[in-house]
Amino acid sequence: MSLRTKLSMLRDQVFLREILDALILTFRHTRVKEVTLQYPHQKPQLPSTHRGALGLLKYENGQERCVGCDLCEAACPSHCIKVVSGEVQRDGVVVRVATAFDIDMTKCVFCGFCVEACPVNALGMTKLYEYSTANKRTLIFNKAKLYEVGERYYSDAKAYLVAHHQEDAGEKAQTYQYRFPSYLSQAAAPQSPLPKEAPDPDAKQVTA
Ligand code: SF4
Ligand code: SF4
């Protein structure tokens, strides 16, 4: 060990250099802005791109956007979406709808692929993240619950779609409404009458 190194070590020992360094560091941190949030009394400000619970959306006139095309189900890497589609007559026009729609939120990895895959922007991700429960069966969101989430957190879902360039802020979502080509609706209408849309019996309040 060289003489210079020895002197340096001696100086550090005499002046308690390491303790001094630690004190200086602690003092510096007293002047740094706090980053810790006292959750749940303080909530974080989440960006519009935040991927929280999924919700199903309706058009401005209250009509369901989903056309039961199954593209979200096909895009989901976790296989946690199940869509059952059907056809109903609405104002004399045959329209395709999802008669059942379930998402198992325990399997969802919040990748957002289902939202991107949807051709009518019927799915949106919200900022809802507080839905932990002791009963994981309640985390299978059925159609009614997904529409409840979509209605309660519509502004979040809309902001998510705008942030991901899937919808414009001022644009009416009706622009994306899906209709069968007229030759198909004319061909289907005279045949066996299709069921009218009925209110969903599963409708219940979101408890999250
Ligand atoms: S966010 Fe991803 S994992 Fe979750 S339902 Fe959509 S596609 Fe599936
Ligand atoms: S949410 Fe979109 S992609 Fe999924 S079934 Fe409905 S219309 Fe199709």
What can you tell me about this protein's structure?
The chain has 208 residues and is an alpha+beta fold. 30% of the residues lie in helices and 14% in strands. It has a domain of 135 residues: Alpha-Beta Plaits, CATH 3.30.70. Strands 2-3-5 form a three-stranded antiparallel β-sheet. It has a two-stranded antiparallel sheet with strand order 1-4. Strand 2 and strand 3 form a beta hairpin. The radius of gyration is 27 Å and the shape is elongated. The relative contact order is 0.18. The structure holds iron/sulfur cluster (2 copies).
**Main sheet strand line-up:** 2-3-5
Q: Estimate percent helicity.
A: 25-40%
Mean pLDDT over the full residue set: 86
Number of strands: 5
Q: Which cofactor or ligand species appear?
A: iron/sulfur cluster
> Radius of gyration in whole Å, from Cα?
27 Å
CATH topology of the domain at 54-188: Alpha-Beta Plaits
The CATH architecture category of the domain at 54-188 equals: 2-Layer Sandwich
Low-pLDDT segments? none
| Straight-line distance between termini | 66 Å
Total helical elements:
7
Largest sheet: 3 strands, antiparallel
Structural class: alpha+beta
* CATH class membership of the domain at 54-188: Alpha Beta
Elements, N to C (H/E): HHEHEEHEEHHH
Tell me what portion of residues adopts beta-strand conformation: 5-15%
User: Judging from the principal axes of the Cα atoms, what is the shape?
Assistant: elongated
